[in-house]
Design goal:
This protein is α+β, with helices and mostly antiparallel strands. It has helices at about 20-25, 45-50, 55-60; strands spanning about 15, 30-35, 40, 65-70, 80-85, 90. The longest helix is centred in the middle third of the chain and has 6 residues, at about 45-50.
Length: about 90
């Protein structure tokens, strides 16, 4: 399943999840893509996105600027929920 969102702005190509990404996020991941800067991963639900507690020490070992995590929204008014985890900070929207 491919994500239904239109970000990141730099086009991402489907790829295998890098070794350690699943463990760093602490959640099973599905579709994974990467552009020159970031990884985009899809998880199964908004609840998973909201409960993410990334291991930033493990994320820091990945050669990427940040990891964008998306999943289907629980609310019918929205298509998806997203979280951005970088080596420096995290934001859930």
């Amino acid at each position: 399943m491919q994500p239904w969102t239109d970000f990141p702005a730099a086009e991402a190509q489907a790829c295998e999840a890098p070794l350690g990404l699943t463990e760093a996020l602490g959640a099973p991941i599905g579709y994974t893509a990467k552009n020159a800067f970031d990884y985009l991963v899809e998880v199964g639900s908004e609840t998973i996105v909201r409960k993410l507690r990334p291991d930033f020490l493990r994320l820091a070992t990945l050669l990427t600027r940040c990891v964008i995590v998306t999943g289907p929204s629980d609310a019918k008014a929205f298509d998806s929920a997203a979280s951005v985890a970088s080596k420096a900070r995290t934001r859930i929207s």
